[in-house]
Amino acid sequence: MCYYTVSDHFSTLRNSLGRLHSCGPQGVATRERQKIIMHPSRRINNTMKKRLTHIWLQSVWLALIFAQCLASPIHAADDPAKAKALRQGEAIYTNGVLPSGEPVQATVFGNVTKTGKEVACTACHLRSGMGQLMDMEILVRPVSGAKLYAPLLGQENIPGPTMKRLMFENPRPAYTDETLAATLLTGKDPTGRELDAAMPRYLLDDDSTRMLISYLKTLSATISPGVTEDEIRFATIIGEGLSAADRDAMLLPLTAFLEDEWNARMSVLSDLTYNRLSHKGRPASGKQDRKASLEVWELHGPPETWANQLETYYARRPVFALLAGFVPGGWTPIHEFCEKNRIPCLFPITDLPGLAENDWYTLYFSKGLYLEGEVAARFLAQDAGLPLGAPVIQVSRDTDEGKALAGSFAETWKKFSEAPLTNINVSPGEQTGRDFWKKLFTANPGAAFVVWLSASDLTGIESLADENQPPPAVYLSATLLGEALPTLPDKIRDFTFIGYPTRLPGDGDYTEAIISNWLKIKNIPVTNMTISSKVYFLNTMLSRALAEMGNDFHRDFFLDLLDGASEKATASISYPMLSFGPGLRYAANGCYVVQLTHGEKPELVKKVDWFFYLGQQ
Questions:
Q1: In angstroms, rounded to a whole number, what is the distance separating the alpha carbons of residues 369 and 352?
Q2: Which is nearest to 576 in space by CA: 564, 588, 585, 563?
């Protein structure tokens, strides 16, 4: 992001108006005006009328630009120097990286030197600069420009949850560039008060300090697109070919919450959860009863055309955030659109999320099939008891699902094992069957098999158990097997492991009863409980974030509030635990590894618990 200053625009306006009055070196407009004055009886011809009208319209247009720049920052795409300075200031704030590329250095707790990400401003003040309540006892104050350059007098000046505001003490006057620079270097606020020892005292030169301060002035400076005086707009995305049952399972609970609950009780929510507090008898100002609206963006055609369709929707009517969404195949084109336009996207329904290490704007339930592939590789490398150096044969089809599973497995396998890995791709028209599996087993004695295929492709796989020495392990995906999982041949169950990325059967009955009751109250038919339950969870998160956001309608603040949610152990029928934190984009980070017992009604036996591999590298 980069911005002009007001003085820059005033200079542009002044120069442009000057050119309009002179109309170039020949002074055309001036001469025509002199003619009118010298010959008052002369009528203005049509050419002169058009010219004066054009001059008047240009003057009005420039005046409107000037008025707009007074109200909000303006992008300065044609000022490379300022754009570069702001990018460098953002790098200091976000990553703790100086313009030289070296890490920022600072001291904390008096004499402890820390560098780089450890002392990046986002570590405490978060991406939006709105601050947080750390460990339920330390109030981290806002550092966005509008907050820094205004007095901090009372609880009403602290954005976010009530508990956070209640921790406020020690008012201060507004910062200036000089006092802010001094605070960054010395750790003292404008009153001379020593800030908390955890606040870094930065070792910055003058240029770096100016860059950081310039960036802070732009941070959460204006209300984000999609918000008007009366409305906050959302959208959801539906892909071509989605069944009517799945469409209803997603849309009906979402619209029921926004229309029947949020819009109906918005005034009450504002009174109870946002700062109707006052300072010295002055009520908090600002409109707090905006209604929420939902648009449906339908995508057609192949995924490579989605970006243009999304841009068209967004240009026509910007939205504050995307909610849920369901498309065939992967979410990557939508993920990239959201990153490009800095649009939050909450909990799309997908097993193929977009992947990018440092991306921010999409919050997923799970890493989906990519997580299953990673867990499979870790399990086979560390805990399956494979013979040392045993080769692994990975079998998949050339589908989006097969590519995700096989790719994530292969990448993770390299990190955890030096044993050889062979990838076998089943072509689109190729049949599997008993002969296929027998031939594959005979050609690879002693190998473990990772099979990323659906149940229809597993016909005849029991032939692996017909030999004197079956393979040491077979690994399958519960997601691909679906409801056919219990029909897995009895003969191979003793050496077959299954990745299971959701709750085990019966584990989410309590939560499902709550959601079923809510759907019944809303007269919403249950067409796909898994989808509806995910939307129900999204609704609870959205309600909290909207209430705590108050009048600070900034997308990064919205995401910061979601990241600050506590762990949810009983909130989802799909996942036993949903966890949140700054920068965590996947709320469900676990996956069981199970085996089937014998018999027609097998049970699932856990071989690896949900969080076993969390955080291991």
A1: 6
A2: 588
The three-state DSSP-derived secondary structure of 7-57 is HHHHHHHHHHHHHHHHCCCCCHHHHHHHHHHHCCCCCCCHHHHHHHHHHHH
Per the CB < 8 A criterion, the answer to whether 299 and 214 are in contact is no
pTM of structure: 0.82
- Distance between CA atoms of residues 496 and 65, nearest Å: 68
Whether the CB-CB separation of 402 and 329 falls below 8 Å is answered with no
Considering only CA atoms, which of 273, 330, 341, 271 is closest in space to residue 303? 330
74-105 per-position pLDDT tens digit = 344 458 888 999 999 999 999 999 999 999 99
How many helices (DSSP H) and strands (DSSP E) are in the chain?
A: 20, 22
**Segment 134-188, tens digit of pLDDT:** 877 888 999 998 999 999 998 888 898 888 888 888 899 999 999 999 999 999 9
Q: CA dist 176 to 143, 179, 342, Å?
A: 13, 5, 29
Distance CA 423, CA 452 (A): 11
State how far the alpha carbon of 534 is from the alpha carbons of 298, 342, 592, in Å. 20, 23, 20
The answer to whether 216 touches 93, Cβ cutoff 8 Å, is: yes
Do the Cβ atoms of 474 and 496 come closer than 8 Å? yes
Give me the count of residues in the chain.
617
